[in-house]
Amino acid sequence: MKVTRVAYSRRLNPGKYAALVEQARRLGRVRSQVWQRYGSVAGAALSDRQVRDRWLTVGTHHQFGVLANAWKETVRDAMADIAAHREAAMIGVNRPCTAAPPNKPSVSACSPR
Questions:
Q1: Which of 40, 63, 71, 104 has an alpha carbon within 20 to 30 A of 24's alpha carbon?
Q2: Sign of the CA dihedral with 19 first, then 25, 28, and 29 last
Q3: What is the pLDDT of residues 7-61, one digit of tens each?
Q4: CA pair distance 75, 71, nearest whole angstrom
Q5: Residue among 97, 52, 59 at smallest CA distance from 74
Q6: How many CB atoms neighbour CB 2 within 10 A?
Q7: What is the pTM of this model?
C-alpha cells in the first residue's frame, strides 16, 4: 500500500519553502538513481541495507547533498517500491487445457498451477 504524507505549515516564508523544494528535488534524484540502478535484475537480490552500505563504501551519498536520514529513508522507500512492483508483476501462468488423448481418456492435459 502506498501512503502519501502531506504536511501543512502556517506562515511558511519563501526561504523555507525554497529549501523544502530543493530538498525534494535532491531526494527525487536519489529515488531516480535507485530505480535506474536497482530496478531491474541488478537489484533483485539486494536489500535496502545492502544498497545503503554499498553507497556509503563507494561514497555515492556525497553527491546528493542531503542529510543521512533523508537519503537513507528514500533508498529504503524506493527499494520497497521496487519489490512491490516486482511482486505485482509475478502472476501465475496457466497452460491452456487441450483435449485428452483419444487412447487415454482419463489423462487430462491441463497442468496444475
A1: 40
A2: negative
A3: 777 888 999 889 989 999 999 999 999 999 998 888 888 999 999 999 999 998 8
A4: 6
A5: 52
A6: 7
A7: 0.69
